[in-house]
Amino acid sequence: MKKSILFFVAMLSVTAAKAASFMPPDTLVVNKPNRVTVITTDSMQTIHIEGRDGNPQYNYRNTLQLVDSNYVSTSGIDNDFSFSIGPLHNKKCKETYPIRQISMHFYAGFNGAPGMPNSVDISSFRSWELWWVIAQYDYLTRHHGFSAGFGVDWRNYRTRDDVQFVLDGDEHLGLTGYDDGMRPKFSRIKVFSLTFPVQYVYRAGKFGFSLGPVINLNTHASVLSKWKEEGRTVKESHKGVHVNPVTVDLMATLHAPFGNYYFKYSPSHLVKDGWGLRFHTLSFGVFL
User: Fold this and answer.
1) pLDDT tens for each residue of 241-272
2) Sheet of strand 44-52, all strands in order from the earlier edge strand to the far edge
3) pLDDT at residue 224, as a whole number
4) 7-25 pLDDT, tens per residue?
5) Regions of the chain short of the pLDDT cut 50
């Protein structure tokens, strides 16, 4: 009798192994689902699986429709990754944590230049920053998280005083006045940078903030002055301003129901040592 039982158990094991090896290729196996819902009607059956082992945002839905003793199957699977542009985020991501997503953001603000000589008044509300964070990876829990991204940044620092930015014969950035008969319109420094923001994020309900550095790879800088002379507009520009190739901004953001705001300040000087004017940079504004 014992030998018969052992033989029977052995046969069952072999049969189960063979059945597993011949499992149809469209078979779906979900380990440790959080919730399974099966809805059956006279002509339709829907299976909905929410969550699985290691992925609480997994979402699978399969609908079987009976048609003349056959069935038509429609199914879909959602994972825990999403993409968002500014405030246009995937609202499903709010339901379960952690959230992992790729986002895109647009910043628009105004610039200042602390440390600039007193003879120059940088007009913050005429000096603009446009910053596009092309791709940012966000990892968020209910309250804490971090983000890291890549973007491009355009900044200018503009004055309408009676002085203009110039490069001398040795390419040093300096200041000079306008000749008699010239009516200044503006003079500005423009900087283009590749940016890499890294932020710690904290959220509490509809409010939140972030803190962290922004690494700037300053790839281009130029100066441009424009004035009126004898009834015509005259422009003078110079390329090759010797800015530091790498500068770091310290950034803080505020997230609130009434808007998103940012502030950046660089303890680094923008222009290289020995190449002219020495000043820091700051910017503030709004973002999506």
Assistant:
1) 999 999 999 999 999 999 999 999 999 999 99
2) 35-40, 44-52, 55-67, 70-78
3) 96
4) 444 444 444 444 444 445 5
5) 1-23, 92-94
Q: Give this prediction's pTM.
A: 0.71
Which residues neighbour 203 within 8 Å (Cβ) at sequence distance 6 or greater?
A: 140, 142, 143, 144, 145, 255
Query: What is the per-residue pLDDT for 77?
Result: 58
3-state DSSP of the chain: CHHHHHHHHHHHHHHHHHHHHCCCCCCCCCCCCCEEEEEECCCEEEEEEEEECCEEEEEEEEEEEEECCEEEEEEEEECCEEEEECCECCHHHHCCCCEEEEEEEEEEEEEECCCCCCCCCECHHHCEEEEEEEEEEEEECCCEEEEEEEEEEEEEEEECCCEEEEECCCCCEEEEECCCCEEEEEEEEEEEEEEEEEEEEEEECCEEEEEEEEEEEEEEEEEEEEEEECCEEEEEEEECCCECCEEEEEEEEEEECCEEEEEEEECCCCECCCCECCCCEEEEEEEC
For 160, the token pair is 């309408």
Predicted local confidence at residue 14, as pLDDT? 46
Inter-CA distances, 263 with 69, 113, 120, 251, 270, Å = 65, 14, 23, 6, 17
